[in-house]
Design a protein that fits this description.
heterodimer; A: 324 residues; mainly alpha; ABC transporter involved in vitamin B12 uptake, BtuC; two-stranded antiparallel sheet; 2 strands; globular; B: 261 residues; alpha/beta; Rossmann fold; six-stranded mixed β-sheet; four-stranded antiparallel β-sheet; 35% helix; 24% strand
């Protein structure tokens, strides 16, 4: 019985963490899949949201902390977007620059401490725990909080991406020229898109911090790769004609699968620091696989051609000897 | 309607590659005119379109549309009044989005946060059926699945959805097979005539240039070297055009595409 309890507990933790990190994946779904921008400020934005959320929660406002974190994330997204749309900085580079700059700002927010503790702080998780204290849902309060957040974000995205502004944002990633000819400024749609995705990334960071009751200044490091890996894993299950809602839901599924695999790997004594290598390898495979698959016939052709040539050569060689 | 006064554009200014792409071009297009523009490659036809649409600012001169100075208006603002089609059918539509979503963007109805209504859907359906390509039954398909001709026809529909003051057609049928090209041209002509749109059309096809529209411009080396309309134009033949070009520019029009068509 103890074994099953252990597995159940493990599974529950994996789902909780998976749901929380799936919000970052949904942010990337907006910036990477829709806007076609690889937003490398994700790491910094995640920690920024966590730090701002933690400071506000510690000061006694657990609900306000969520809004504050999202506002901070939107601000970070705004800066990244302005750098690339109004100041001629390459989109990858502007993400890296914002990421670097945020590190200092995070230290300021956290009062120059590398770690903030929230052991005795009221958070959205403790509030939910109080609310469900005497019900059978009590032990699931963390999943419920995470699930509510994920559902709200998915519903928001699936409605928003069908509005005129949402369509314009999708078209910006698809064909920016066409956006211009529809009398819409692609700089504007990029800014709006990155602000929203930034606020989701920060929300995800804020929830993770409150979940584990602490923030460290390196909480977000490697998040962009992990989220990208989850997004691409989710993409494997997509049909060609999947609609927006389906694609958003599969992004969440991708995050859950990633977290499960990671949890299982930890269970089999994989050291925790291997997570980042694993996520890096997954991203490499997921992005390069379609390319290599397309290239495979060429490899095969050149291999066969080489064999054919060498066969010709050996035949000629023997022929020459006969003549001699 | 469209009044262009002495516009000049130099590419790669101040380098050895400097090219005078538009040389003091002035032209006055009247409301409802359908103007065909011909000229050899590099004559400045597309540059003229880019200048009008606002892809770049000209170095000097002014552009007025319907009495309003648009010389320094940004491209996306001009797009409200200027529709444009390119040679490449991929340019005007978003391939990953459905036909309906593309049309919704072009129609640009409602506020930023408005969703498509049933009424919009019915309206798009009706408009698409005018193309006679069966697109009205494929409204939920991604545009990327359409053929070049279908995409170009759809782009045309999108560019003229809210009747523009000016339509720029930059060899918009050149990448299509002859039968499709003719169909797209026919649709183009009927949309223009029905809505009385003022239109400029670049073409490499001399007979199209003389058949369609009411005025023809010939460009060479960044200048408009010949401008003809009315009765004089209706008497022109393709060989007349070739001769005129030779006289005006001192060169022979050596483009096979122009000779053969």
């Amino acid at each position: 019985m103890q074994f099953f309890d252990q597995i159940g507990g493990l599974l529950q933790t994996a789902v909780e963490l998976g749901l929380i990190s799936s919000i970052t994946v949904l942010a990337l779904f907006l910036s990477y899949s829709m806007l076609n921008i690889c937003d490398l400020s994700t790491d910094g934005c995640f920690t920024f949201g966590a730090a701002v959320g933690a400071v506000v929660a510690i000061s006694g406002h657990p609900y306000l902390s969520i809004l504050a974190a999202m506002g901070a994330g939107a601000l970070s997204g705004l800066v990244t977007a302005i750098l690339q749309t109004k100041m001629g900085i390459n989109s990858l580079l502007s993400g890296i620059i914002v990421n670097t700059g945020l590190f200092s700002i995070i230290m300021v927010v956290m009062g120059e401490r590398p770690l903030l503790n929230m052991n005795f702080t009221d958070t959205v998780f403790t509030k939910m725990k109080e609310l469900l204290k005497d019900t059978f849902l009590g032990q699931y309060h963390k999943i419920i909080v995470a699930l509510i957040a994920v559902i709200l974000v998915v519903v928001f995205l699936s409605v928003f991406l069908r509005t005129k502004l949402g369509l314009a944002i999708r078209a910006t990633g698809n064909n920016p020229d066409m956006v211009k000819s529809s009398s819409i400024n692609p700089a504007f749609t990029t800014i709006v898109g990155l602000c929203i995705s930034g606020s989701f990334t920060a929300l995800s960071g804020c929830l993770l911090a409150q979940y584990q009751k602490s923030v460290s200044s390196d909480l977000g490091s490697g998040r962009v790769t992990i989220a990208l890996a989850s997004l691409l894993i989710g993409g494997i299950f997509l049909m060609k004609q999947s609609r927006i809602t389906g694609r958003a839901i599969f992004s969440v599924v991708g995050a859950l699968i990633f977290q499960m695999v990671y949890t299982v790997a930890l269970r089999f004594n994989m050291p925790a620091y291997m997570l980042k290598l694993v996520s890096a390898v997954i991203v490499i495979i997921a992005i390069s696989a379609p390319y290599l698959k397309k290239k495979f016939p060429e490899f095969k052709r050149s291999f066969l051609h080489g064999r054919y040539l060498s066969k010709l050569r050996t035949e000629n060689d023997t022929g020459d000897k006969k003549d001699a | 309607m469209l009044k262009i006064t002495k516009i000049t554009k130099v590419f790669n200014k101040g380098t050895v590659d400097a090219k005078l792409a538009l040389d003091n071009v002035s032209v006055d297009i009247k409301k409802g005119d359908f103007v065909s523009i011909i000229g050899a490659n590099g004559a400045g036809k597309s540059t003229l379109f880019n200048a009008i649409a606002g892809s770049f600012y000209t170095d000097s001169g002014t552009i007025e549309l319907d009495g309003r100075d648009i010389t320094l208006a940004p491209e996306h603002k001009r797009a409200k009044q200027i529709g444009r089609l390119f040679q490449d059918p991929l340019k005007g539509t978003a391939p990953g989005m459905t036909i309906e979503e593309n049309l919704a963007l072009a129609a640009g109805k409602g506020g930023w946060l408005s969703l498509l209504s049933k009424k919009d859907h019915a309206e798009f359906r009706e408009k698409l059926s005018l193309l006679e390509m069966g697109l009205e039954d494929r409204m939920q398909h991604p545009v990327g699945l359409l053929s070049g001709g279908q995409r170009q026809a759809l782009t045309l529909m999108m560019a003229t959805y809210n009747t523009p003051k000016l339509l720029l057609l930059d060899e918009h049928t050149a990448a299509l097979d002859p039968a499709t090209a003719e169909k797209v041209l026919r649709i183009t002509n009927s949309i223009i005539e029905e809505n009385g749109i003022t239109c400029l059309m670049v073409t490499h096809n001399m007979s199209t240039a003389l058949e369609l529209g009411n005025r023809t411009l010939m460009m060479d080396n960044g200048k408009i070297i010949y401008d003809v309309e009315g009765e004089k134009r209706s008497k022109l033949t393709i060989s007349d055009l070739m001769k005129l070009f030779k006289e005006a520019s001192g060169k022979v029009l050596d483009n096979d595409r122009m000779l053969l068509s």
